[in-house]
Design brief:
Length: 271
């Protein structure tokens, strides 16, 4: 029996179905169970929610015989109940769908960012782009001069081992501190090489608008996932992180929690 669990908030829209597909593939790959969560506003909705969740759980179980699936219905609001359920279920990762201004009580933009940045658990946020049978083949890792930027590498390296992914380091161009940018790239190269991870590195062509350049580069390499830090208003600033999460290319985005220091301590993908 797996000791890891993945939580999927479900509102029965198409994007939450995509989130369930991602969760099922991840659970199968890293030997985890899946917990489907639906949050309702009053007790009268509980019975119907349980039946609908059971149907979704059966679909996952029938297609992924090695994945254990359970369900949970909570009366309340998503901003509190996602985090609370994750804690109760000892979830190590939350996979959540988001789209426009529909579903999940408008869980997009600043609302989605609020849920994600208030969590101590990493998130993968998806739109309509499903997951390949091979998983996440190409992972883009934006890297700026922030103190936590290097910490993403541990999670990315562990994940890349499972899926035999190629990692694309995309560094911000900072003319005033070009040497630090270079040092960060050297660090990333040495770290990923030491882990046996296929990778390449590139520096942004111009200063400013880093978020836009990250998305353009991600499209160029046909990225399956972009990994950012969960730092509140962090690398890109609040509104830019919102744009990243709900990007027009609909590339899934993983938000990794910042640690106090170092590139160590284990991740959700640690074996």
């Amino acid at each position: 029996m797996s000791l890891k669990s993945l939580l999927v908030p479900v509102d029965f829209t198409e994007v939450s179905k995509v989130a369930m597909e991602h969760a099922a593939k991840l659970a199968e790959t890293i030997d985890a169970s899946v917990v489907l969560l639906n949050v309702v506003s009053d007790a009268e909705e509980v019975h119907e929610a349980k039946e609908k969740l059971a149907a979704e759980a059966k679909i996952i179980a029938d297609s992924n015989s090695n994945v254990s699936v359970s369900t949970a219905v909570r009366i309340g609001n998503i901003f509190e109940d996602i985090a609370q359920t994750a804690a109760e279920e000892s979830a190590v990762l939350i996979i959540m769908g988001t789209h426009g201004a529909k579903g999940w009580q408008k869980l997009t933009g600043s609302y989605a960012l609020k849920v994600i940045t208030s969590s101590k658990i990493p998130f993968i946020v998806v739109q309509t782009k499903g997951i390949k049978s091979s998983g996440y083949d190409d992972i883009v890792v934006p890297m700026d001069l922030g103190q936590h930027s290097k910490q993403k590498l541990e999670t990315v390296a562990d994940m890349a081992k499972y899926f035999s992914s190629r990692v694309h380091i995309f560094a911000d161009r900072v003319e005033s501190d070009a040497q630090k940018v270079k040092n960060n790239i050297i660090f990333a190269h040495k770290y990923l090489t030491g882990k046996g991870i296929q990778h390449d590195t590139k520096v942004a062509e111009k200063t400013g608008h880093f978020d836009e350049q990250v998305l353009a580069y991600s499209k160029e390499v046909d990225a399956d996932l972009i990994v950012i830090m969960n730092e509140g208003v962090g690398m890109f600033g609040g509104k830019h992180e919102q744009a990243m999460i709900t990007n027009a290319e609909e590339i899934p985005v993983m938000a990794v929690n910042a640690k106090d220091s170092g590139v160590a301590g284990g991740t959700v993908f640690s074996r």
